[in-house]
Amino acid sequence: MAAQQSQGIQTLLEAEKEAAKVVQQARQYRVQRLKDARTEATKEIEEYKKLKEREYQEFESSRHGTTQSTQSAVDKETDGKLTEITAAYEKSKAAVVVKLLNRVVLVKPELHRNLKKLESP
Q1: 20 to 30 A Cα–Cα from 45, which one of 60, 87, 103, 120?
Q2: What is the pLDDT of residues 84-115, one digit of tens each?
Q3: Residue 115 lies in a domain
Q4: DSSP string of 59-105?
Q5: Which of 106, 107, 88 is nearest to 98 (CA)?
């Protein structure tokens, strides 16, 4: 009977060792699969980045001409407005100087309105 028990225990120990090996292999397989998945994801990300960069470059090159023409149109409009503003300045500069000098030089001395109220009663 003792021999049977010891043989049963031995069988259980071997089964336990086999189960530990299977668990260890499963862990290693899982770790390897995670590494492979990361590598694959990194490759996909790089490919996607390259694709989007290429699309951006194509978009930019197709829009480059319109950007320059728009910029030149804006520059022309700005130059025209500056010319108008400069002409208006030159035209009314003398009149503004005269108005300012009249306000500064021609002063009518009179009492302050609060002082007038005090003297009224």
Answers
A1: 60
A2: 999 999 999 999 999 999 888 887 888 887 77
A3: no
A4: HHHHHHHHHHHHHHHHHHHHHHHHHHHHHHHHHHHHHHHHHHHHHHH
A5: 106
